[in-house]
Amino acid sequence: MTKNLTLEDTAARLRGRDNILIITHIRPDGDTLGSAAALCSALRRLGKRAYLYKNPGVTDLYLPFVEKFFAPADFSAEFIVSVDTASTNLFPEGFSGGVDLAIDHHPSNSGFAAETYVDGASAACGEIILELVGLLAGPVSKEEADLLFVAVSTDTGCFQYSNVTARTHLAAAELIERGADSARLTKLLFRTCSRERLALEGYIYSNMASYHGGKINIITLTNAALAALGVTEDDMEDIAALPGRLRGGAASVTIRENRDGTSKVSLRTTEEVNASRVCAKFGGGGHAAAAGATIKRPPREAAELMRQALEEALVGGE
Fold this sequence. Notes:
By secondary structure, the chain is of the alpha/beta class. It is built from eleven helices and twelve strands. Helix content is 38%, strand content 17%. The longest helix has 18 residues, at 299-316.
């Protein structure tokens, strides 16, 4: 059983260890990567040997931010830390073994690590790492500020999602004060995209299926459809937010086919539905308004299962 730590305990654990490997989750987003890289940088400022696991899922968008922190092939880790990873089924491709310390903001964290720090009130793991770096090494550096701005802004949809709090904005303000280039990063992350991304957005809006009087909206993305659109992983950033833009919706589902034919499900909801509870029925989890799961069925079957679960949730008031 995992031991739950305070943030001060977490800092103490890291101060007392060396040869640290930090892992990010599968299909890594800006929060897991920015948080992990900022923590790695801070540990190096303390004189620690620290590296990131070379996650093969890192896209070209994020690679320039993190590649300098990747572990060399001959690195032998003595202490393994996961960041923004809620369960073992989210471990990056190629990684196996135990985790000594998990740092996370998902209330559904499964407790897989020997010791865990979870703050479910944080909109992004980047908020936690900002405080943790302060305890470890003092104010963040300019580079760490950029990395954590990437983390916090991407996990909040550029500060649009319901998970955003006053603390989130204060964290962003501190990062900008410490040198984060918010204008450049916001343009790069939220106001620049490829033609293929625009085509993907058009496909999503044109092919959404709506149920329960428009309260449930589901888009199914098969490998064949994505190949026809010519999209890459760089074009897939935050696609789960798109179906939720439809007025009157209470639950939006993005279902993407995995390489093995199973389905990756991303669920976004309003206060009418608890996303984490719905995804827990399929072995997943997350937050009340944003959660995910892997359903071992083809995408169209997964869509039907999600429709049924969401109909039950809306009728039952879950």
